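#struct-pred

JT: dropping the chains for the assembly here, can someone run the whole complex?
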Amino acid sequence: MITEKDVDHVALLARLELTGEDKEMFTRQLNDILEHFQSLQRLDTEKVQPTAHVLPLKNIYREDRVGEHIPRDDALANCPDRVDNYFKVPKIV
Amino acid sequence: MTQYETVIGLEVHAELKTRSKIFCDSTTEFGGDPNTHVCPVCLGLPGVLPVVNKTVVEYAIRAALALNCRVASFSKFDRKNYYYPDMPKNYQISQYDLPIAEHGYLNIEVKGEVRKIGITRLHMEEDTGKLVHQGNITTTPFSLVDYNRAGVPLIEIVSDPDMRSPEEAYEYLNKLKAIILYTGVSDCKMEEGSLRCDANISVRPAGSQEFGTKTEIKNMNSFKALQKALTYEAERQIKVLKEGGRIIQETRTWDDEQGITLPMRSKEYAHDYRYLPDPDLVSMVIDREWVEEIKRSLPELPDDRKERYVREYGLPVYDAMVLTNTRELADYFEDCVAVYPNAKTVSNWVMGDLSRLLNASVVGIINCPIKPEQLGALLQLIEKGTISGKIAKTVFEEMFATGKAAETIVKEKGLVQISDEGAITAIVEEVIAKNQKSVDDYRAGKERALSFLVGQVMKASKGKANPELVNRLFKERL
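RK: done, full complex below.
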């Protein structure tokens, strides 16, 4: 059962600011979603290996070779703000 | 009064020396202008797909085998989610429940006692970008990010909580570094950040079986800092307990300037990483034949080499330990012994004069101006009596400064030892004639007077007289 406290926690981890109304709505929606998936619990998975990946592929590797880098201005093109050649972001700590 | 025991476990990160990053083909080269060693994959742009660099897996297995780990037959990568701009994706690709290797160990020696330190696990992950700050770090509202390092391959090696003192932690890190260097998968430079170390530390009443509450210590940037930080933190925890307080489980940072650990703000470091298997990367099924092949390619490791030096060369354990600490020094020693087979003499020169000059000049053994064969040739000159041991020291310094062969220097500077009895007798007799008082003293039983007389001959011959011959000639005459 998801409580409003859980929603607060998840919001903090995702750096989301939620209003009281938001919280109420997300608490209800998240519980609905979990309830829906509860139906999976009815399956007997006793003899099923945990799935790490759905594709029938394994051991996809590349050789250790250096390729092309992208031009720096392209690298920085989408960032909201830059200082010299750095990405500029709000300080976290 | 309660005695306390310290319990320490280390988490060590080593950058792997591959050419390209772990999931893309950007270069791993250190430094570079900010944000030039990047591509859409390591910038985390939408729609890109990471692909594992095979050499990273190989190197991780190589390190794992050298650390006596069991290599997994099935392994995968997971996303570690956290909100911090050192990774552009808001997650770091790491390994969670199925690391590439587990259950290893290494042996350390502290105060003559060998202790086996367990290794819980070894896993692969990507390094993060670097944050820099303009102006005052505490007041500036911004961080600047350079993603050149983001995606450089790392192995993280987690030890069991088996260490019982800061000295043991120091020795563990030293041994771990030596072993990894031998395998050649990382250059382990703490000052460049290619080797990093965090510690978990707790204290408990001696004899207790349960662990105390631990703290995690970060930001120890040298071996010395590790030892100082752990010593401080153990004392801090003991003090808290003695005063009736309790330890708070938290992450603390080592402040090297103040010599103390400080709590980091815990909210931002909430350990809620919500690991999930990375759907962009498929599983790895590790071929046993591949593991065996890597095992066969491992070099002789420090412990084996040390034991061999004691057994084969008859060296003291201490010498064997120092010489085998790096592969380069051990190779140097062996190349020298191939030319001049008295191992103990070679060891004395390598550990003594050579190490002293190398340390003073900050030249690594690899670039040592004196090649091992040249040192061997110098030692032969001493043995043959061509030069005295004292002159050899001068020749040695000259060799180090110029890279010339010992024989060349001896010839150029006319340093050949005088073993001609006639020539030395003349000097000896002159010294006797000029130093009647010392002669009388010696005859009266003062042994020290003889050293003075011998010294006078050495001075007159500019150090070239054969000292044994000088001694003999005096004794015959006095």
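JT: nice. The mean pLDDT of chain A is 90. The helical segments of chain A are 4-13, 20-37, 72-76.
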